[in-house]
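Course assignment 3, question 2. Fill in each field.
Student: A.L.
Task: Predict the tertiary structure for the chain below.
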Amino acid sequence: MSSGPVGVALVGAGVISTQYLTALSTFPDVRVLAVADLDVERARAAADTYEVPAAGDVASVLAIPEVEIVVNLTIPAAHAEVAGAALQAGKHVYGEKPLALAPADGAKILAEAQAAGLRVGSAPDTFLGAGLQSAARAVAAGAIGEPVAVTAVTQGPGPESWHPSPEFLFQYGAGPLFDIGPYYLTALVALFGPVRRVSAAARQARAERVIGSGPKAGTSFAVEVPTHVQALLDFTSGPSASATFSFDSSVSRRTIEITGTEGTLSLPDPNTFDGPLRVQGFGEETWRELPVTGSTAGRGMGVLDMARAIRGGTGHRASGELAQHVLELMSTITEAAERGTVLPLESGAPVVPVLPDGWDPAAATLT
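Answer field:
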């Protein structure tokens, strides 16, 4: 078995790569060895900025023997293809969300990894941050009694106002459900386990959107997916949830509230790694702040947990199996909205243990 820091390569040098490179370059238990992109010059620029030793196209990066984990930051339409190439090259793969565009593609990735003795991980890893880890501990400690119901909302005017190339966020495999939904749904599945059935409704407010920033500002593009989705979820463990995912609101709102038999817990935005975390019991007139402890290191925590698990021979938390259940959940929500019916889910979801006290990304644990 190998020892010491785990070699990592990034495939995709787009907007999100800067967040990964910023975090991963500070973790002593991983070494960022290479950056790849279809635009090789963009890959080289990212590598130079973060002092990464190698850059190039995908094939050249996959050929580096010391690379053990490939971090797949390509657009959703390329997730399955790049994951497959990484696995064929003998690399573990950790991808941005969603795991793939369709559950069948996600299942193929997992099957190929299992056959090769390799691991699959997937974003989001925000549920490993201090805010949602503290929420998980509060629920487990009975802060609101027995959880009964959840209200989850993410709404706003859409990313075309700030993203310089937002077209892919309105194509198949994205939209508010597949782009932002994974943060909310992963947080809930990590807390309560798998969803057993769903119903849903979906709408599209406008057939075209206009880019609001960058060199393509003023350019219109077609919208291919629903931009407002509402879903009802029943968890196998008992609670139910109502969830709204929207790019159609002039008012921005991001919240998860868990109602229990003894009070309500207000969680932080699941697209962040910190608090606040608040609780209000029956008979109380105001919210009380709960302590938030843990790491706020940012995107890449899931890669680090996976790297440490590889060395230690344990399970990693932001797993492909968790991502596959969330992918099936989103696909089933889409189908339920199209058919106007209640649909069951077939896949399960692994138990996600809370990070141990003192889990520190900045500490070197692999020697």
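Instructor remarks: The first helix runs from residue 17 to 24. The chain is about 30% helix and 25% strand.
Grade: pending
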